[in-house]
Amino acid sequence: MRWLNERQRSKLVVETCLLAGKIMIENGSEMVRVTDTIDRISRNAGATEARAYVTLTGIIMSATPDMGSQVTAIDKRTFDLEKVSTVNDYSRQFADKKISLGEFYRRLKRMDKDVKPFPFWLQMIGAFMVSATLEVVFRSNYTDFWAAGFVGMMGWCIYCLTDHYTDIRFLNEFIAAICIGFMSILIIRAGIAKSADDLIIGGLMPLVPGVPITNAVRDTLSGNLVSGPSRGIEAIMSACALGFGVAMAIKILG
Asked: Transmembrane segments in this chain: where (predicted)?
């Protein structure tokens, strides 16, 4: 009976670690943080012989040498650093023995219900501010402040709507970039702003894959030569989708 209980606990440790790692990778965490979190959870749970192999597309883990490994797949990746922070907070609470392993697992299962994304209207305001302030900080263009904010806000709206209705990777960036190019050129032709280049650059800023690029460099420098280049390729493909979309808009409208 005692052997059965230990085996059940080992299985719970693996399931908790896999779920925590999956949530972190899906929401933009770097591999170093994921590996460290899994190791800490295992160690604090008493599974000192646990081993985990973490990649961008899946996690393989076993609690003991005589126990079979379990695998979880990572199908879709987005960016919600609040969920990453929440997983780390739960891990610290578990280390301080404020919550049990079972409660830790149940909280992770409720993660999508407990941690809601920012409201869409707030995301729109954020996109407006990122695009508009770029004109002032980096381009010293005060006249196109409102136009750049509008283009960035509408580009983010189109990006979110496309991402909601399609599962094709990088299509949302491509369509959003085309619309940003169209809007920028039409605004210039209407005489509302002065520089189409500034509007396009500002409008693209909320869509630039900054987090994947940063994580790619961090993973590569830490010696993870699987996830690092993979994230880099993913970031490059996103940047190419944005560039091709803008190029198509300029080609059509001139």
From this structure: 118-139, 145-162, 174-192, 235-253
Residue of 67, 65, 107 whose CA lies nearest to 88: 107
> Nearest-CA neighbor of 146 among 197, 206, 187, 189?
187
CB 175 within 8 A of CB 158: yes
The residue type of 92 is R
Distance, CA of 154 to chain centre = 21
149-159 residue pLDDT tens: 999 999 999 99
Say how many C-beta atoms besides its own lie within 10 A of residue 210's C-beta: 12
β-strands 51-54, 70-73: how paired? unpaired
pTM of the predicted model as reported, rounded to 2 decimal places: 0.82
Q: What backbone torsions phi and psi does residue 126 show, to the nearest 5 degrees? A: -60, -45
Four-residue CA torsion sign, 208, 214, 219, 225: positive
Q: Which residues contact 221 (CB under 8 A, 6 or more apart)?
A: 228
